[in-house]
Amino acid sequence: MFRRVFIFGSTGSIGKKALEIIDTFHGDIEVFGLSAYSSIDCLVAQAIKYRVKVVVVPNLEAKELFHKKWTNKNLIPKILIGSESLVDMAYDSSYDTVIAAIVGIAGMPSALAAAKAGKRILLANKEVLVVAGDLFMQYVFTFKAELIPIDSEHNAIFQCLCGNENGIDFKKIENSINRILLTASGGPFRGYSLDSLQNVTPEKACSHPRWNMGPKISVDSSTMINKGFEVIETHWLFNIPTRKIEILIHPQSVIHSMVEYIDGSIIAQLSKPDMGIPISYALGFPIRTKNKVGFVDFTELRKLDFYQPDFIKFPCLSLAFDALKLGQAHCIVLNAANEVAVDAFLNENIRYTSISRIIDASINWYEQKIPYSLNNLDDILHLDRITRDFARKICHV
Q1: Which listed residue, 40, 50, 332, 384, has the most CB atoms within 10 A of its CB?
Q2: Pick the CATH number of 187-223+310-397 from 1.10.1740.10, 2.60.40.10, 1.10.10.10, 3.30.420.10
Q3: Could you tell me the pTM of the whole model?
Q4: Which residues are documented as binding site for NADPH?
């Protein structure tokens, strides 16, 4: 096995972990290219270490900074600028595998292009499926792209469905499945009362008990909308109806998800809570490879706890289920309003409990409009843009 990889979003937590895992493949994976938005120092260090051929940066200022920071005697890589270059590189035939790790809707155009190019896509970007799941999966099937999710829950489901086979027929699996159980740690506020959430600070919301993540996704985990997004992703990834997807709070984060089959059998994926395992699995698939994460010691676990989610205390979770039932446009509104609200909360412009209210108000606003047709990326981005405009206005009311 030899793969040539381009990492879109190499300086984020997923990109860094992917490079760390690639080191364990001992030359079987070549890093062809990298992209970053802001951490140019880190990008330069990565480009030097992996001797990449291409990097993509956001603007001319970032390109000039990259040149300034490049002190290595080796030839400097080709430096491309802007979001259009990300799309161009997604189509490039010089490599075979994309790690789609750009955070937010900014990662969607390049991921869609990679699907149209028939690439092997290791998907970490949630928004691609939340905002454009129908269109993205059409491209995956039409252009015969190979799709492997690398967030822990969906990678766990993939493993439970796939076993040791070489792939999944996503269009046929529903008939053999009774339900999919998405596990969730419950976040930092599982034990909080409803009233105490009024005074949550950004610092508290970003203190996840199990995972070390960026500010935005940490807040999403704390409100549990992140798990709601994962329900939407599960629907599109595995062609599973909403009624067959359930959430189970599992504080130990050892079982990353489970699949219950129609005969009563349940297959679960267990491992340490470390992103290295799903990334390693996806990079090597269908061959499992060693990594440095380590193994579960069942004698230390003592017990595994499970609880039903509290939809009253975490209304964002209900909003996500509702959006999926209402349709793709509502999922776009859900995601856009959430991004605006979380940003406002992190900048201390709104209360923590206002996040769900802004999302709910945005969905109600869209309900009053003539339904949008979503036939292409431009349609999706237009609805995303006007939703953000509306959500920003009510953030300041």
Answers
A1: 332
A2: 1.10.1740.10
A3: 0.92
A4: 11-14, 125, 127, 214
